[in-house]
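Worked example 2:
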Amino acid sequence: MRFISSQAFTKLEGQLIYHSEEYSFDFRPLSHQALANRVGNEGTTSITIDTLQIEVDIESGLVLYVFGYYPDKLWDLEKLPLITPQQGCIKVITDEKLKMGVSQTLADFNEWRTIYDLDSKWICISSTNDLYQSAQYIEFADNIVAVLVGENLSSLWLKPFNLV
């Protein structure tokens, strides 16, 4: 599975929410039409990191947003470095064609580490303990940042508006 950045679209505007009573993330697009413009005729599917889902347009491979069950009880509390992402979009390229309703796993349970910074309110879900300075930080939806090292997704940074 490869991930590439593109300037074909700007970030998807909306609101990332964490529902603490449900232990889940939700993304509410500011404009349903803007979201519909990014989804082709074949619909969407997801790529999973543990139980977190990354919604993807099947036709274009365009990464849309994140959602799903992801309990905060398993997050480590640590200070994270400041990041300055650029806006853009991410496309995923897979060996096999994506299928509606059939998610593909990027990482299983506990393969990636999750860090929550109480001061900045950023959550970093990372495949590594190293935070690459030479990586690309792409904000593809409001407060959702993909970190690419080459064509690999190294981490996701999430900043729900409602976390305290």
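The first strand starts at residue 2 and ends at 6. The chain has one domain: 2-158.
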